[in-house]
Protein backbone atom coordinates (compact mmCIF):
# COMPACT_ATOMS: atom_id res chain seq x y z
CA UNK A 1 0.00 0.00 0.00
CA UNK A 2 1.03 3.60 -0.46
CA UNK A 3 2.05 6.03 2.27
CA UNK A 4 -0.38 6.34 5.19
CA UNK A 5 -3.02 9.04 5.28
CA UNK A 6 -2.03 12.13 7.28
CA UNK A 7 -4.04 12.97 10.35
CA UNK A 8 -5.71 16.21 11.30
CA UNK A 9 -6.07 18.11 14.54
CA UNK A 10 -9.66 19.20 13.89
CA UNK A 11 -12.75 17.12 13.40
CA UNK A 12 -14.62 17.72 10.16
CA UNK A 13 -18.35 18.19 9.77
CA UNK A 14 -20.58 15.60 8.19
CA UNK A 15 -21.32 16.24 4.54
CA UNK A 16 -25.04 15.50 4.65
CA UNK A 17 -26.94 13.79 1.86
CA UNK A 18 -25.55 12.81 -1.48
CA UNK A 19 -25.50 15.48 -4.14
CA UNK A 20 -28.37 15.25 -6.62
CA UNK A 21 -27.59 13.86 -10.03
CA UNK A 22 -27.41 17.05 -12.04
CA UNK A 23 -25.63 19.18 -9.43
CA UNK A 24 -22.19 18.41 -10.84
CA UNK A 25 -19.18 18.35 -8.53
CA UNK A 26 -16.24 20.21 -9.99
CA UNK A 27 -12.58 19.45 -9.26
CA UNK A 28 -12.10 22.82 -7.62
CA UNK A 29 -15.03 22.34 -5.23
CA UNK A 30 -14.18 22.57 -1.49
CA UNK A 31 -12.96 19.32 -0.01
CA UNK A 32 -13.80 17.81 3.32
CA UNK A 33 -11.02 18.10 5.89
CA UNK A 34 -9.59 14.91 7.25
CA UNK A 35 -10.92 13.33 10.42
CA UNK A 36 -8.34 12.23 13.01
CA UNK A 37 -10.18 8.92 13.23
CA UNK A 38 -8.80 8.08 9.79
CA UNK A 39 -5.57 6.79 11.29
CA UNK A 40 -7.16 4.46 13.82
CA UNK A 41 -9.70 1.72 13.47
CA UNK A 42 -13.07 1.84 15.15
CA UNK A 43 -14.22 -1.44 16.63
CA UNK A 44 -17.07 -2.11 19.01
CA UNK A 45 -15.71 -1.92 22.56
CA UNK A 46 -18.46 -3.95 24.11
CA UNK A 47 -19.39 -7.57 23.42
CA UNK A 48 -22.76 -6.73 21.88
CA UNK A 49 -24.30 -9.33 19.62
CA UNK A 50 -26.89 -8.15 17.08
CA UNK A 51 -29.22 -5.48 18.40
CA UNK A 52 -28.29 -6.14 21.99
CA UNK A 53 -26.43 -8.58 24.22
CA UNK A 54 -27.79 -10.45 27.19
CA UNK A 55 -25.35 -10.56 30.10
CA UNK A 56 -26.23 -13.26 32.62
CA UNK A 57 -25.21 -13.23 36.27
CA UNK A 58 -26.34 -15.24 39.29
CA UNK A 59 -29.49 -13.27 40.10
CA UNK A 60 -30.12 -10.84 37.22
CA UNK A 61 -30.17 -10.35 33.49
CA UNK A 62 -29.09 -7.03 31.98
CA UNK A 63 -29.93 -6.02 28.41
CA UNK A 64 -27.43 -3.70 26.78
CA UNK A 65 -29.16 -1.19 24.49
CA UNK A 66 -28.02 -0.81 20.92
CA UNK A 67 -25.55 2.04 20.52
CA UNK A 68 -26.90 5.05 18.64
CA UNK A 69 -23.40 6.11 17.61
CA UNK A 70 -23.16 7.35 14.03
CA UNK A 71 -19.48 6.47 13.85
CA UNK A 72 -18.59 3.50 11.61
CA UNK A 73 -17.65 0.18 13.14
CA UNK A 74 -14.84 -0.20 10.61
CA UNK A 75 -12.52 2.39 9.13
CA UNK A 76 -9.95 1.35 6.59
CA UNK A 77 -7.59 2.86 4.05
CA UNK A 78 -7.12 1.43 0.57
CA UNK A 79 -5.57 2.57 -2.65
CA UNK A 80 -8.41 1.46 -4.94
CA UNK A 81 -12.09 0.92 -4.15
CA UNK A 82 -14.07 -1.04 -6.75
CA UNK A 83 -17.83 -0.69 -6.38
CA UNK A 84 -19.68 -3.54 -8.06
CA UNK A 85 -18.34 -7.09 -8.43
CA UNK A 86 -19.94 -7.97 -11.74
CA UNK A 87 -18.40 -8.70 -15.13
CA UNK A 88 -16.20 -5.59 -15.21
CA UNK A 89 -15.70 -5.01 -11.49
CA UNK A 90 -14.26 -8.42 -10.67
CA UNK A 91 -11.65 -8.08 -13.43
CA UNK A 92 -10.84 -4.50 -12.39
CA UNK A 93 -10.27 -5.54 -8.78
CA UNK A 94 -8.06 -8.50 -9.68
CA UNK A 95 -5.98 -6.31 -11.99
CA UNK A 96 -5.52 -3.55 -9.41
CA UNK A 97 -4.55 -6.13 -6.80
CA UNK A 98 -2.04 -7.79 -9.09
CA UNK A 99 -0.36 -4.43 -9.61
CA UNK A 100 0.18 -4.11 -5.87
CA UNK A 101 -2.62 -1.67 -5.05
CA UNK A 102 -4.43 -2.33 -1.79
CA UNK A 103 -7.89 -3.01 -3.18
CA UNK A 104 -11.37 -3.41 -1.70
CA UNK A 105 -14.25 -4.79 -3.76
CA UNK A 106 -17.82 -3.95 -2.68
CA UNK A 107 -20.67 -6.09 -3.99
CA UNK A 108 -24.24 -5.65 -2.79
CA UNK A 109 -25.19 -9.24 -3.65
CA UNK A 110 -23.81 -12.55 -2.40
CA UNK A 111 -21.42 -13.53 -5.18
CA UNK A 112 -19.16 -12.12 -7.88
CA UNK A 113 -19.73 -12.33 -11.61
CA UNK A 114 -22.88 -10.26 -12.08
CA UNK A 115 -24.56 -11.01 -15.40
CA UNK A 116 -22.50 -14.19 -15.80
CA UNK A 117 -23.52 -15.67 -12.44
CA UNK A 118 -26.42 -13.90 -10.73
CA UNK A 119 -27.98 -13.02 -14.08
CA UNK A 120 -27.21 -16.46 -15.50
CA UNK A 121 -25.93 -15.33 -18.90
CA UNK A 122 -23.01 -17.77 -18.72
CA UNK A 123 -22.48 -17.53 -22.46
CA UNK A 124 -19.96 -14.69 -22.79
CA UNK A 125 -18.67 -13.10 -25.95
CA UNK A 126 -17.25 -12.00 -28.06
CA UNK A 127 -13.53 -12.52 -27.55
CA UNK A 128 -12.76 -12.91 -31.25
CA UNK A 129 -13.28 -11.07 -34.51
CA UNK A 130 -12.69 -12.12 -38.11
CA UNK A 131 -10.64 -15.19 -37.34
CA UNK A 132 -8.50 -14.02 -34.44
CA UNK A 133 -8.81 -13.31 -30.73
CA UNK A 134 -9.09 -9.59 -29.93
CA UNK A 135 -9.91 -9.62 -26.19
CA UNK A 136 -7.90 -11.71 -23.73
CA UNK A 137 -6.38 -10.80 -20.36
CA UNK A 138 -7.91 -11.54 -16.97
CA UNK A 139 -11.47 -11.94 -18.21
CA UNK A 140 -10.44 -14.58 -20.71
CA UNK A 141 -8.28 -16.22 -18.02
CA UNK A 142 -11.39 -16.64 -15.85
CA UNK A 143 -13.54 -17.95 -18.69
CA UNK A 144 -10.84 -20.29 -19.98
CA UNK A 145 -10.11 -21.80 -16.57
CA UNK A 146 -13.78 -22.29 -15.76
CA UNK A 147 -14.35 -24.12 -19.08
CA UNK A 148 -11.23 -26.26 -18.64
CA UNK A 149 -12.10 -27.15 -15.04
CA UNK A 150 -15.57 -28.15 -16.21
CA UNK A 151 -14.28 -30.27 -19.09
CA UNK A 152 -16.06 -28.03 -21.58
CA UNK A 153 -15.29 -27.04 -25.16
CA UNK A 154 -14.16 -23.84 -26.84
CA UNK A 155 -15.29 -22.44 -30.18
CA UNK A 156 -12.72 -22.22 -32.94
CA UNK A 157 -11.73 -18.56 -33.04
CA UNK A 158 -9.78 -19.11 -36.27
CA UNK A 159 -13.08 -19.72 -38.05
CA UNK A 160 -15.43 -16.84 -38.83
CA UNK A 161 -18.88 -18.05 -37.73
CA UNK A 162 -22.06 -17.68 -39.79
CA UNK A 163 -23.83 -16.25 -36.72
CA UNK A 164 -22.02 -14.25 -34.06
CA UNK A 165 -23.30 -16.32 -31.15
CA UNK A 166 -21.65 -19.45 -32.54
CA UNK A 167 -18.39 -18.15 -31.02
CA UNK A 168 -19.77 -17.33 -27.60
CA UNK A 169 -18.41 -19.58 -24.86
CA UNK A 170 -20.54 -21.97 -22.79
CA UNK A 171 -19.38 -21.40 -19.20
CA UNK A 172 -20.33 -23.02 -15.91
CA UNK A 173 -21.69 -20.08 -13.94
CA UNK A 174 -21.09 -21.74 -10.57
CA UNK A 175 -17.43 -22.51 -11.24
CA UNK A 176 -16.97 -19.01 -12.62
CA UNK A 177 -18.16 -17.45 -9.34
CA UNK A 178 -15.79 -19.64 -7.33
CA UNK A 179 -12.82 -18.80 -9.55
CA UNK A 180 -13.60 -15.08 -9.26
CA UNK A 181 -13.28 -15.30 -5.48
CA UNK A 182 -10.14 -17.43 -5.65
CA UNK A 183 -8.37 -15.00 -7.98
CA UNK A 184 -9.42 -11.97 -5.92
CA UNK A 185 -8.00 -13.55 -2.77
CA UNK A 186 -4.79 -14.53 -4.58
CA UNK A 187 -4.41 -10.92 -5.77
CA UNK A 188 -4.83 -9.59 -2.22
CA UNK A 189 -8.27 -8.12 -2.92
CA UNK A 190 -10.60 -7.83 0.07
CA UNK A 191 -14.24 -8.61 -0.72
CA UNK A 192 -17.17 -7.03 1.13
CA UNK A 193 -20.53 -8.59 0.23
CA UNK A 194 -23.93 -7.10 1.11
CA UNK A 195 -22.54 -3.54 1.32
CA UNK A 196 -23.01 -0.43 -0.77
CA UNK A 197 -21.94 3.24 -0.53
CA UNK A 198 -24.33 5.60 1.22
CA UNK A 199 -22.28 8.82 1.14
CA UNK A 200 -19.26 9.63 -1.02
CA UNK A 201 -17.23 12.70 -0.06
CA UNK A 202 -14.26 14.31 -1.78
CA UNK A 203 -11.23 14.66 0.50
CA UNK A 204 -7.70 15.93 0.07
CA UNK A 205 -6.12 12.67 -1.09
CA UNK A 206 -9.12 11.06 -2.76
CA UNK A 207 -12.43 9.94 -1.33
CA UNK A 208 -14.20 9.10 1.89
CA UNK A 209 -16.86 6.49 1.21
CA UNK A 210 -19.34 5.61 3.96
CA UNK A 211 -20.94 2.24 3.31
CA UNK A 212 -23.65 0.21 4.97
CA UNK A 213 -24.64 -3.42 5.06
CA UNK A 214 -26.85 -5.24 7.52
CA UNK A 215 -25.10 -5.02 10.87
CA UNK A 216 -22.13 -3.18 9.34
CA UNK A 217 -21.08 0.44 8.96
CA UNK A 218 -17.80 0.89 7.11
CA UNK A 219 -15.81 4.03 6.27
CA UNK A 220 -13.37 3.66 3.40
CA UNK A 221 -10.61 6.16 2.66
CA UNK A 222 -9.36 5.59 -0.85
CA UNK A 223 -7.32 7.32 -3.48
CA UNK A 224 -9.24 6.01 -6.49
CA UNK A 225 -12.76 4.72 -7.14
CA UNK A 226 -13.70 2.38 -9.98
CA UNK A 227 -17.48 2.48 -10.51
CA UNK A 228 -18.60 -0.85 -11.98
CA UNK A 229 -22.20 -0.72 -10.81
CA UNK A 230 -23.71 -1.05 -14.29
CA UNK A 231 -25.64 2.18 -13.95
CA UNK A 232 -22.72 4.36 -12.76
CA UNK A 233 -24.36 4.77 -9.37
CA UNK A 234 -21.35 6.30 -7.63
CA UNK A 235 -20.99 8.75 -10.51
CA UNK A 236 -24.63 9.70 -9.98
CA UNK A 237 -24.11 10.10 -6.23
CA UNK A 238 -21.36 12.60 -6.91
CA UNK A 239 -23.54 14.64 -9.24
CA UNK A 240 -21.71 14.03 -12.50
CA UNK A 241 -23.95 13.85 -15.54
CA UNK A 242 -25.41 10.53 -16.62
CA UNK A 243 -27.43 9.70 -19.71
CA UNK A 244 -30.35 7.41 -20.44
CA UNK A 245 -33.45 7.24 -22.58
CA UNK A 246 -37.04 7.20 -21.34
CA UNK A 247 -37.44 3.64 -22.64
CA UNK A 248 -35.22 0.81 -21.44
CA UNK A 249 -34.46 -2.39 -23.32
CA UNK A 250 -36.29 -5.38 -21.86
CA UNK A 251 -34.41 -7.46 -19.35
CA UNK A 252 -34.32 -11.25 -19.38
CA UNK A 253 -35.23 -13.63 -16.57
CA UNK A 254 -33.52 -17.00 -17.05
CA UNK A 255 -35.00 -20.36 -16.08
CA UNK A 256 -35.28 -23.99 -17.25
CA UNK A 257 -38.57 -25.76 -17.75
CA UNK A 258 -39.14 -29.47 -18.30
CA UNK A 259 -35.52 -30.56 -18.52
CA UNK A 260 -32.43 -30.31 -16.37
CA UNK A 261 -30.14 -27.34 -16.88
CA UNK A 262 -26.57 -28.43 -17.57
CA UNK A 263 -24.28 -25.49 -16.72
CA UNK A 264 -21.60 -25.00 -19.32
CA UNK A 265 -23.40 -27.24 -21.81
CA UNK A 266 -26.68 -25.73 -22.92
CA UNK A 267 -28.53 -22.48 -23.37
CA UNK A 268 -30.99 -21.64 -20.64
CA UNK A 269 -34.60 -20.58 -21.28
CA UNK A 270 -35.35 -16.89 -20.97
CA UNK A 271 -38.35 -14.64 -20.83
CA UNK A 272 -38.43 -10.90 -21.55
CA UNK A 273 -39.20 -8.53 -18.68
CA UNK A 274 -40.40 -5.41 -20.44
CA UNK A 275 -39.51 -2.10 -18.83
CA UNK A 276 -36.89 -3.78 -16.64
CA UNK A 277 -35.10 -0.97 -14.83
CA UNK A 278 -32.16 -1.40 -12.46
CA UNK A 279 -32.08 2.28 -11.48
CA UNK A 280 -32.96 1.61 -7.84
CA UNK A 281 -34.15 -1.09 -5.46
CA UNK A 282 -37.80 -0.32 -6.16
CA UNK A 283 -37.60 -0.66 -9.94
CA UNK A 284 -35.36 -3.73 -9.66
CA UNK A 285 -37.93 -5.30 -7.31
CA UNK A 286 -40.70 -4.60 -9.83
CA UNK A 287 -38.71 -6.28 -12.60
CA UNK A 288 -38.01 -9.36 -10.49
CA UNK A 289 -41.63 -9.69 -9.40
CA UNK A 290 -42.84 -9.36 -12.99
CA UNK A 291 -40.35 -11.92 -14.26
CA UNK A 292 -41.14 -14.51 -11.60
CA UNK A 293 -44.88 -14.03 -12.10
CA UNK A 294 -44.51 -14.69 -15.83
CA UNK A 295 -42.48 -17.84 -15.21
CA UNK A 296 -45.03 -19.16 -12.71
CA UNK A 297 -47.79 -18.57 -15.27
CA UNK A 298 -45.77 -20.51 -17.84
CA UNK A 299 -45.26 -23.43 -15.43
CA UNK A 300 -49.02 -23.65 -14.90
CA UNK A 301 -49.76 -23.29 -18.59
CA UNK A 302 -47.18 -25.79 -19.89
CA UNK A 303 -47.58 -28.20 -16.95
CA UNK A 304 -43.84 -28.88 -16.87
CA UNK A 305 -41.46 -28.99 -13.94
CA UNK A 306 -39.45 -25.87 -13.12
CA UNK A 307 -35.89 -27.21 -13.05
CA UNK A 308 -33.84 -24.03 -12.66
CA UNK A 309 -34.44 -20.38 -11.81
CA UNK A 310 -31.93 -17.53 -11.62
CA UNK A 311 -32.23 -15.25 -8.57
CA UNK A 312 -32.84 -12.03 -10.48
CA UNK A 313 -33.51 -10.34 -13.80
CA UNK A 314 -30.62 -9.72 -16.16
CA UNK A 315 -30.71 -6.01 -17.01
CA UNK A 316 -29.46 -4.71 -20.34
CA UNK A 317 -29.66 -0.97 -19.99
CA UNK A 318 -29.48 1.76 -17.37
CA UNK A 319 -27.52 4.99 -16.98
CA UNK A 320 -24.40 5.72 -19.01
CA UNK A 321 -21.87 8.34 -18.04
CA UNK A 322 -21.18 11.55 -19.88
CA UNK A 323 -17.49 10.99 -20.36
CA UNK A 324 -14.54 12.99 -21.56
CA UNK A 325 -15.47 11.54 -24.96
CA UNK A 326 -18.43 9.55 -26.24
CA UNK A 327 -18.38 6.48 -28.47
CA UNK A 328 -21.02 7.00 -31.17
CA UNK A 329 -22.65 4.30 -33.26
CA UNK A 330 -20.67 5.64 -36.22
CA UNK A 331 -17.43 5.23 -34.24
CA UNK A 332 -18.50 1.73 -33.36
CA UNK A 333 -19.66 0.51 -36.76
CA UNK A 334 -16.68 1.99 -38.64
CA UNK A 335 -14.14 0.55 -36.20
CA UNK A 336 -12.67 3.92 -35.28
CA UNK A 337 -9.25 3.50 -33.70
CA UNK A 338 -9.20 6.06 -30.89
CA UNK A 339 -5.86 7.66 -30.03
CA UNK A 340 -6.29 6.52 -26.41
CA UNK A 341 -7.81 3.10 -27.17
CA UNK A 342 -7.36 0.65 -24.29
CA UNK A 343 -9.39 -2.34 -25.51
CA UNK A 344 -11.12 -3.79 -28.50
CA UNK A 345 -14.84 -4.55 -28.54
CA UNK A 346 -16.76 -6.82 -30.87
CA UNK A 347 -20.47 -7.56 -31.13
CA UNK A 348 -23.33 -6.63 -33.46
CA UNK A 349 -25.41 -3.56 -32.74
CA UNK A 350 -27.89 -5.42 -30.55
CA UNK A 351 -30.85 -3.31 -29.45
CA UNK A 352 -33.70 -5.35 -27.91
CA UNK A 353 -37.30 -4.11 -28.20
CA UNK A 354 -40.77 -5.44 -27.42
CA UNK A 355 -40.70 -7.10 -30.84
CA UNK A 356 -37.43 -8.86 -30.09
CA UNK A 357 -33.97 -8.19 -31.50
CA UNK A 358 -32.49 -8.08 -34.99
CA UNK A 359 -28.71 -7.84 -34.57
CA UNK A 360 -26.92 -5.64 -37.09
CA UNK A 361 -23.58 -7.33 -37.77
CA UNK A 362 -20.45 -5.27 -38.27
CA UNK A 363 -18.96 -5.14 -41.75
CA UNK A 364 -16.11 -7.56 -42.49
CA UNK A 365 -12.82 -6.48 -40.96
CA UNK A 366 -14.38 -3.88 -38.63
CA UNK A 367 -13.26 -4.14 -34.99
CA UNK A 368 -14.36 -1.26 -32.69
CA UNK A 369 -12.13 0.16 -29.97
CA UNK A 370 -12.83 1.71 -26.57
CA UNK A 371 -11.03 4.92 -25.53
CA UNK A 372 -9.80 5.58 -22.00
CA UNK A 373 -11.59 8.95 -22.02
CA UNK A 374 -14.95 7.16 -22.40
CA UNK A 375 -14.33 5.63 -18.96
CA UNK A 376 -13.74 9.00 -17.27
CA UNK A 377 -16.78 11.02 -16.08
CA UNK A 378 -16.45 14.48 -17.58
CA UNK A 379 -14.68 16.89 -15.23
CA UNK A 380 -13.83 14.25 -12.64
CA UNK A 381 -10.61 13.25 -10.91
CA UNK A 382 -9.68 10.01 -9.12
CA UNK A 383 -12.75 8.35 -10.62
CA UNK A 384 -13.14 5.89 -13.49
CA UNK A 385 -15.88 3.52 -14.64
CA UNK A 386 -16.00 0.22 -16.50
CA UNK A 387 -18.81 -1.84 -17.97
CA UNK A 388 -22.06 -1.03 -19.68
CA UNK A 389 -22.11 2.51 -18.23
CA UNK A 390 -19.28 3.50 -20.63
CA UNK A 391 -19.83 6.88 -22.28
CA UNK A 392 -21.62 6.00 -25.51
CA UNK A 393 -24.82 6.63 -27.41
CA UNK A 394 -27.60 4.10 -27.12
CA UNK A 395 -26.90 2.13 -30.29
CA UNK A 396 -23.16 1.93 -29.67
CA UNK A 397 -23.87 0.86 -26.11
CA UNK A 398 -26.03 -2.02 -27.32
CA UNK A 399 -22.84 -3.57 -28.70
CA UNK A 400 -20.39 -2.37 -26.06
CA UNK A 401 -22.39 -3.69 -23.08
CA UNK A 402 -21.58 -7.38 -23.64
CA UNK A 403 -19.33 -9.36 -21.33
CA UNK A 404 -16.03 -9.64 -23.20
CA UNK A 405 -15.96 -5.90 -23.89
CA UNK A 406 -16.83 -5.14 -20.25
CA UNK A 407 -13.98 -7.39 -19.13
CA UNK A 408 -11.58 -5.46 -21.34
CA UNK A 409 -12.78 -2.17 -19.89
CA UNK A 410 -12.51 -3.53 -16.36
CA UNK A 411 -8.89 -4.57 -16.81
CA UNK A 412 -7.96 -1.17 -18.28
CA UNK A 413 -9.72 0.64 -15.43
CA UNK A 414 -7.89 -1.53 -12.89
CA UNK A 415 -4.53 -0.63 -14.44
CA UNK A 416 -5.29 3.09 -14.72
CA UNK A 417 -6.59 3.36 -11.14
CA UNK A 418 -3.71 1.37 -9.62
CA UNK A 419 -1.08 3.41 -11.47
CA UNK A 420 -2.82 6.68 -10.59
CA UNK A 421 -2.93 5.72 -6.90
CA UNK A 422 0.76 4.87 -6.95
CA UNK A 423 1.74 8.13 -8.67
CA UNK A 424 -0.61 10.32 -6.63
CA UNK A 425 -2.40 11.49 -9.76
CA UNK A 426 -5.66 10.79 -11.63
CA UNK A 427 -6.25 8.06 -14.27
CA UNK A 428 -6.34 10.42 -17.24
CA UNK A 429 -2.89 11.79 -16.31
CA UNK A 430 -1.21 8.38 -16.22
CA UNK A 431 0.93 8.03 -19.39
CA UNK A 432 -0.98 5.95 -21.93
CA UNK A 433 2.19 4.08 -22.85
CA UNK A 434 2.47 2.89 -19.24
CA UNK A 435 -1.17 1.72 -19.20
CA UNK A 436 -0.62 -0.18 -22.44
CA UNK A 437 2.59 -1.73 -21.14
CA UNK A 438 0.93 -3.03 -17.98
CA UNK A 439 -2.05 -4.36 -19.92
CA UNK A 440 0.22 -6.35 -22.21
CA UNK A 441 2.17 -7.68 -19.23
CA UNK A 442 -1.11 -9.04 -17.85
CA UNK A 443 -2.22 -10.71 -21.05
CA UNK A 444 -4.50 -8.13 -22.62
CA UNK A 445 -4.53 -7.35 -26.35
CA UNK A 446 -4.02 -3.61 -26.85
CA UNK A 447 -5.29 -1.86 -30.01
CA UNK A 448 -2.45 -0.64 -32.17
CA UNK A 449 -2.24 1.56 -35.24
CA UNK A 450 -1.33 -0.20 -38.46
What structural class do the secondary elements suggest? alpha+beta
SS element count, helices: 9
Task: Report the uncertain regions.
Answer: 2-30, 33-67
| Binned strand content | 15-25%
Q: What order do the SSEs take from the amino end to the carboxyl end, as H and E? A: EEEHEEEHHEEEEHEEEHEEHEEEEEHHH
Helicity range = 10-25%
- Judging from the principal axes of the Cα atoms, what is the shape? globular
Distance between the termini: 38 Å
Textual characterization of the structure:
The chain is 24% helix and 20% strand. The chain is α+β, with helices and mostly antiparallel strands and 450 residues long. The strands form seven sheets. Strands 3, 4, 7, 8, 9, 10 and 20 form a seven-stranded mixed β-sheet that branches. Residues 2-30 and 33-67 have low confidence and may be disordered.
Protein topology:
Elements: E1 54-56, E2 61-63, E3 74-83, H1 87-98, E4 103-107, E5 128-129, E6 132-133, H2 137-149, H3 173-186, E7 190-193, E8 196-203, E9 206-213, E10 216-227, H4 233-237, E11 242-243, E12 251-257, E13 269-273, H5 281-302, E14 306-309, E15 320-321, H6 329-334, E16 341-344, E17 352-353, E18 356-357, E19 369-371, E20 383-385, H7 394-400, H8 403-423, H9 432-441
Parallel strand pairs: 3-4, 3-10, 4-7, 10-20
Antiparallel strand pairs: 1-2, 5-6, 8-9, 9-10, 11-15, 12-13, 12-14, 16-19, 17-18
